[in-house]
């Protein structure tokens, strides 16, 4: 189904988000402030906190007091428009932490501020107002009403907010477009596929126009492909509506994909807060290190993160002499050919160009191989890998209209698959694996002539 999310995950948007995250703290007031907040389940709460302060573990405290530390000493701020992700294993306190933000759970100690208001002090009436107008909550199953129509479900949240029928309808229809379900408003929820239901759920959460959305593992029950779709759709929409989102997940890839910043929890405590890049680059302790070491970089990193500017390009209308000369100067044995709008036309080899010169041909045409495989900026490195099988020349990264945005060279790809350069071996291994998969049998047909004509690595930029 042609929804907006199918456009793919905007990696450029991800980079921009990191930059925003880095600058935000200096320029904006936080919209949520959680100050040294703890939640203890059970009766001997103060004793439990006292024991924690003196260094006892969560398990020891549970044995001694029968009380459970849900959250301990959480301290962080969330800024307007930010996607703040809370991640951790099951039981680490994510849901509890999320719920203290809208006072579904009262903290045993510590303070929560929303827009500067200390929310434990607001009256019950004010709290109802806040929950209705300011802060929405989305759960895994979105709580859709099965026997109502799609439009009714979307406008349900607005009804609760006391918005007029005509306005509700208008707003619901707009949101329907946003999630790629235009024209399906009159269908019953029971008539929809799992992925479509999820879109309705997302639409309902967005239609309410609450400034803050608390989302507790909303995509965790979905199968991986639909899940990826929903993540993309969510990012896409968030790019426009710019809500403040606190998003709980136990999936590291999801956290790194969605979060401006990510808080990692262990046994009720936040062990690190940082941008996805910071967390991968500088894990705060051994726990985080172990937690992130399973990340499949090939899945998380995209072509865009490792691409570079091509050293030179050839224009379709140029002659072979002039192009060959530039290639010599830049030390290239292949060159990408573009039209006057820098849209990729093909690739040309120095050898073929030399032949054109010998034949005194005025134009490049005969030397252009037009059948080039390309990738997009957001293609995961895992999918870029196979393009290097049987060739060590760079792979072109193209944008809209096949516009040449950059190239991925083999060395950078391998480096992108690993965290540290001494792990480059593991990148090489992944490439070897793909090669083996691609070639199938041991005695597969020999690779085409390109490989033999190959210049040394990195030369073909
Ligand atoms: N209502 C409750 N009563 C007692 N213990 C609870 C309650 N809710 C959560 N806990 C405990 O608090 C800890 C954190 O739980 P939770 O926030 O649900 O973790 P997560 O969402 O990360 O899986 C766990 O040890 C859990 O057993
Ligand atoms: Mg939970």
From TrEMBL:
Which family, according to UniProt? Belongs to the ABC transporter superfamily.
Question: Lineage of this protein's species?
Answer: Bacteria, Bacillati, Actinomycetota, Rubrobacteria, Rubrobacterales
Q: Using the record, list the residue span of the signal peptide; answer none if the entry has no such feature.
A: none
- Tell me a GO biological process for this protein: response to osmotic stress
Q: Which GO terms describe its molecular function?
A: ATP binding; ATP hydrolysis activity
| Source organism superkingdom | Bacteria
Q: Which PROSITE patterns match?
A: ABC_TRANSPORTER_1 (PS00211), ABC_TRANSPORTER_2 (PS50893), CBS (PS51371)
Q: Which NCBIfam families does the UniProt entry name for this protein?
A: proV
- Which residue intervals are annotated with compositional bias (Basic and acidic residues) in the record? 426-438, 450-461
Keyword Nucleotide-binding found:
yes
Q: Where is this region: Disordered?
A: 421-461
For this record, the Gene Ontology CC terms, alphabetical, are: membrane
Note the InterPro entries from the entry. AAA+_ATPase (IPR003593), ABC_osmolyte_uptake_ATP-bind (IPR051921), ABC_transporter-like_ATP-bd (IPR003439), ABC_transporter-like_CS (IPR017871), CBS_dom (IPR000644), CBS_dom_sf (IPR046342), Gly-betaine_transp_ATP-bd (IPR005892), P-loop_NTPase (IPR027417)
Q: Domain CBS: where?
A: 307-366, 368-423
One Pfam family this chain carries? CBS
Domain ABC transporter, first and last residues per copy = 51-292
Protein known as: ProV: glycine betaine/L-proline transport ATP binding subunit
Name the UniProt key words of this record, in alphabetical order.
Answer: Amino-acid transport, ATP-binding, CBS domain, Nucleotide-binding, Transport
User: CDD domains from the entry?
Assistant: ABC_Pro_Gly_Betaine
